[in-house]
TrEMBL record:
<feature type="transmembrane region" description="Helical">
    <location>
        <begin position="43"/>
        <end position="66"/>
    </location>
</feature>
<keyword id="KW-0472">Membrane</keyword>
<keyword id="KW-0812">Transmembrane</keyword>
<protein>
    <submittedName>
        <fullName>DUF308 domain-containing protein</fullName>
    </submittedName>
</protein>
<keyword id="KW-1133">Transmembrane helix</keyword>
<feature type="transmembrane region" description="Helical">
    <location>
        <begin position="78"/>
        <end position="94"/>
    </location>
</feature>
<feature type="transmembrane region" description="Helical">
    <location>
        <begin position="131"/>
        <end position="151"/>
    </location>
</feature>
<feature type="transmembrane region" description="Helical">
    <location>
        <begin position="157"/>
        <end position="176"/>
    </location>
</feature>
<feature type="transmembrane region" description="Helical">
    <location>
        <begin position="100"/>
        <end position="119"/>
    </location>
</feature>
<feature type="transmembrane region" description="Helical">
    <location>
        <begin position="21"/>
        <end position="37"/>
    </location>
</feature>
Amino acid sequence: MVRLVMILLGVDYLRTRWRSLRIVGWLSVLVGAAIFIDALDNALYFPITPFALLLLLEGLCTLAVAWTGMGGQRTLRYVKGFAFCFAASLILAGHHHGHFVLSMIFGTLFLADGLLQIVSARVVRYRTWRLAMIGGGVEIALAIFFFQPFPTHYVGTVPYCLGLGLMFGGWNLILLSTRVRRLASNPAVAANGAAEDEAADAHAARAQAAASAAPSGRPVTLEWDGPPAADEAALTVHVWTPVGSAKGEARRQPIVDRYIAAVDRNGVISTGHAALESPEGIYISLYPGVEIDRSPDDFARLLRATRENDVPGVFQPDYKTESKAWCPSTVQVRIRNYDPVRLRRFWDAYRQDTTYNLTHRNCSSSVSRALEAALEGASARVWSSVGGWRPFLRVITTPELWVAAQLRKRAATMAWTPGLTLDYARALSMLADPRPSGWVKMARLAVRRMMHSRQQWREEALNATAVQAGQTAERGVASGPVRD
């Protein structure tokens, strides 16, 4: 999550606040450690019942405004609301059974995530796969800690989770403050090597000129109630899903055909595709120069992110050419708030190397890295008029940040796939183009309805007055004197 916060807020914004970030980080670590240690015996000082009530209130409030969201935002709000209400209900249910169920849930989540991380790191073998296996081992150890009843017979489950969350969150803030203190640029979106950095510097002036000549379409508001319109200038992420791009009828395999690959009835594997298009004419779509044999027998070997699996690649010229030669993209994600200069700089450096690797340097990883380069500082830029800590607080309290962080972690330990890139782009779009909060949207709808009702009542009153005046005039004519 540290790198994602650096991307969204930018190094320049965070560098001026590194001391405050470090202080808050250490306080969070100390408070989390105190809560965790306090839960190690049966004498709990942590106010667990008030905490459960606050959790329940937050869940109910989230459910109350969940309907105001759009698409994935609405789904995420419902999931968050139901999860909070369910956890609070388990805490308030009883002294033992609720805590036992909650502990089993947390233990299962840690176990599944740790095993998945170890297996994927072992199969893919990317550069830091050993460190990822150690992290997976730590998660399995935490799962065992939650599964076994010692030392509090599951009563300390909630303080354990809260303490661990505060400690990990504080440690992330400390790492963030340490990194931004010494950085002149953001390594999260930097090129892979010095040669690429030099190439980017050489093209910086031309990128600036191209960006100034093109219509930027920069936002002038703090929030947008919906995605960009069809005629609005926006960065577009094109995704061909595995099922949508399969040559034959795909065998439905939930989750697998969404995030990994789809297999048609002839046994041919389809992994999908991803591309990025900007209004300034940049089109990033990396494809192997020679078709890779993706038969089930060779697919496991191709998953390794090693040099023997590197093949020459080719960048497609534009979306019109690619979609005409293949098929239109299945899904598009459009983002208004991006930096065309940073995107141009990244593209001028990245396209110098056309190497393709199915798991390490593929179409999805290229799009995800380009998207991060284009969105660097997006949250700080959109909230620049208010300044202060509001951009930071807005980012870390947005649920999509946590979703994007988990997707980025999963892709970093496994491989970027079109499915992961699609969800990642959707989450980042909610952070780069912030939507109004649920309460604000509800208030706006209420005011709009009140104004509409008042206008309707005014029109009805005017109509009623006119009708009454007409009826009075008719009665006056009918009751007038009759002359011979």
